[in-house]
Amino acid sequence: MSDSVNKHKAALVLPGGGARGAFQVGVLKAMAELVPKGTSNPFAVISGTSAGAVNAVVLAAKARRFKLAVAELEQVWGNFRCEQVYRTDRLTMLKSSLHWFGAIVTGGLVGMPKSLLDNTPLRALLSRNIRFPRIQDALDCGWLDAVAVTAAGYSTAQSHTFFQAKEGHLPWSRTRRVGVREDLNLDHVMASIAVPMVFKPVRLGAEYYGDGAMRQATPLSPAIHLGADRILVIGVRNEVADISPETPDDPAFPTFAQIAGYTLDALFLDGLYSDLERMTRINQLIDAVPEQHRDGVVEQMRPIDTMVVVPSEDLRDIAYRHRKELPFALRALLHGIGGGKKQSENRLLSFLLFESEFTRELIDLGYRDAMKVKEQLQDFMSGAPLPRLFAPDWVKYDLSEVGA
Length: 404
Fold this sequence. Notes:
By secondary structure, this protein is α/β, with parallel strands linked by helices.
């Protein structure tokens, strides 16, 4: 990294979002083109949750060559098939459906299923593509300060951020969230992506864990605890509000698919945007205190420069255009629980559509959107001053309002 970057401790925060995580790869692809050839990882701290955890550990393990790391992410995400993530054959789907039905009607006598979908194919894929010992190599060589992966403990009901870092970084404990220093492995990542009910929980030590977004009320805090003073967040949701119902006097009853998609959307992203607003309010408070009066008043707080990149298009609409690429068994299931309505099934579809035609379009969108703000990204990576964002002004990085 350049000397100017070293004056700041830049962090990359990658939230979850299932198949929407391909958008993050597109933004990273653009950033890889903006740095000189042979550049190492430009982020001192990388923090990921759920699908973002996968991208985070790949970047950490390949920290020596940022362009190569991003190229490998694009290779995997751009060639995804659902069967690489979860089993999609009709026999497996039928057995799963019958198991759930039998457990419900017999009161659990046949044994409760551990999950709706079997994601052992994803474990095998990640095992082949991520070399976890290289993370320590990156730390030892100075290409990285820390990498963090967050999961939610079912027994303790706490958010656990597992981090691997250079010496000097200490664990932390706050209300319902803790930082645990450990060497990361595949189980940490699989725990972080274990969406409740959809994928089975993963045991780490004496506790079972699920998707890290479940208890992550403050998604920016791991990066801040690890010393970051500027943060780049790559979101996976367009922040334009949905259109109000055309018939408010007789609204359509929400389908199961609509409720499930809504739940995942809130699970993955609402905490992030709330945390961004909270942090910008703190920045505003600090800036309001004159420099000569800050000693002893704001010594426990520091301003954090933040840049946020979110999609310029609604990823749900893109997913719906590619709905026929979903395996038949899953397509039939979504169509059934969505009542055959676009607005009911497309939100959930956008999380589950791990098909290359969809993920490639998201990669292309992320690349284009990042290039629209390439000057700001270059400033971020160079350590140049960034405009201070105050809630809700940070949504100006919603690229639907930025010219091509």
